[in-house]
Amino acid sequence: MGAMQIPTRREVIENHQEAGGRVAAVLPVHNPRGLLRSFDLLPVEVWGPPGMDTTTGDEHLQAYTCSIVRCSLAFVLSGALEAVDVIVVPHACDSLQGLGSLMIDFIKPSQPVLPMYLPRQAGAAAQDFMAAELRALFERLVEITGKRPTEVEVMAAVEREEEADGLLTQLSRQRAQLSLSCPELYRVMRAREYLPAERFAVVARHALEQRAAEPRSGVPLILSGLLPEPMRILEVIAEAGGRVAADDLACCGRRLYPPGRSDDPLQRLAQSLLGGSPDATRGSSVQDRVDHLQRLVLQSGAKAVVFYLVKFCEPELFYLPQLRAALERSGVRSVTIEVDVGDPMSHQVVTRLEALLETLG
Ligand code: SF4
Fold first, then answer.
1. What is the mean pLDDT of residues 116-132?
2. pLDDT score at 122
3. Ligand 1, from 93, 229, 254: best to mutate by most atoms within 8 Å of Cβ?
4. What is the pLDDT of residues 38-50, one digit of tens each?
C-alpha cells in the first residue's frame, strides 16, 4: 500500500458545492472549523496561496507587508474567491487585521468578510473571550445563511473536528515510525487545511497504517515558523541528509488541538482552539515557546531548530532573538531562513541547509 490519492482543493470544493454545500475561505491561523461546518460551510484555508503575482494588490499595501497577506489580497482581487460564500479573517496579526479592514472598507468583495479576534493571553478570561467571538460569528452566519444549527448539531460538528485533530496529532507524533517520506507526510497533514474532517480522517488513518520496517534515518531537525512553503524545502532537507523530526509550524504543529471539555459547544471549541501549543499569533509568552521547543527537542532527539520564516512576519520575528538565545544556552543549534511564500527555493537556502546538516551529521 502506498500513500493514498488526496483530492485537490478544487475537486473538494466542486464536490461540496455540487452536493448543495457552501464554502468559507479562511485565512491563517486558527480556523473555527466545527462552527463553520455546522452551517454546512466547508472551511478551505488560504495560506497565500503561494505563487500569486502580487502586483495587483501591492499598491494597497506597505512595502514591508508579508507575502501571505500580499498573495491573499492578490488572490481576492483576481476573482479566484468568487465561488466562495464567506471569507473569514482571523486577526492573527496586525497585517491580517489590516487585510480584513482593507477588504471590508475598500475592496468590498461580493461575499461577506467576517473578522474573528483571538485572545492574546491564556486562562479563563481568554476562553470566555474566544467563546464570545465564536458566538458573534455564529450570529453573523445565522444572518447570512438563514440557518440556525441546534446545540446538538454544533456539538456534533465540533466533535467530528476533534477526531480529525486527534488523527493529525498521531500523524505528527508517530512520523518516525511511518513509511511516508517527509513531503508525503506533509501533503497528508496539510490536507487538513481543506478536506472535510471525515474525509481527512480516512486519509489520515490510511497513512497511519503505513508503518516503516525501520525508524527513519537522517539528522533530525525541528522546523519552526508559519508553513513549509515552498514545499521543496522538505525535499532539500531530505536530500541533504536531514529529516523533519517534529515541527513548530503554525499550519501543523501549533494546531494539534486537544479536545475541549465543556458541554457548551462554543465553549468547547474555544477550549480546543486555545489548547494548542504556544503560538506567536495568540501572544504566548517567550518562556512558554522556549519550554515547548526544548520539549520538542528532547522528545524528537532533534539536533537543531530551523526557523523557517516568512519575510516581514512581525509576530515570529519579535520572538526570534530570545528563542535562539535560549536554545543556544541549552546547547541547541538553530538557523534562521527567511523566504517569501511565492519564491522558488533559492541556492542560498539550499547551501545553508546543506552546511548546517554537514556540521551536525
Ligand atoms: S506571515 Fe506573519 S505577518 Fe504574515 S499573515 Fe502570517 S502571521 Fe501575519
1. 92
2. 82
3. 93
4. 999 999 999 988 8
- What CATH number should be reported for the domain whose range is 10-137? 3.40.50.11890
308 CA from centroid of ligand 1 (Å): 13
Mean pLDDT of the chain: 94
Closest Cα to atom 3 of ligand 1:
313
| Angle (deg, nearest 10), helices 182-190 and 151-173 | 170
pLDDT band with cut points at 50, 70 and 90 for residue 52? confident
Residue ID of nearest Cα to ligand 1 atom 8: 93
Task: Look up residue 332 and give its three cell numbers.
Answer: 541547541
| Nearest residue to 2 via CA among 179, 219, 226 | 179
* pLDDT beyond 60 at 1: no
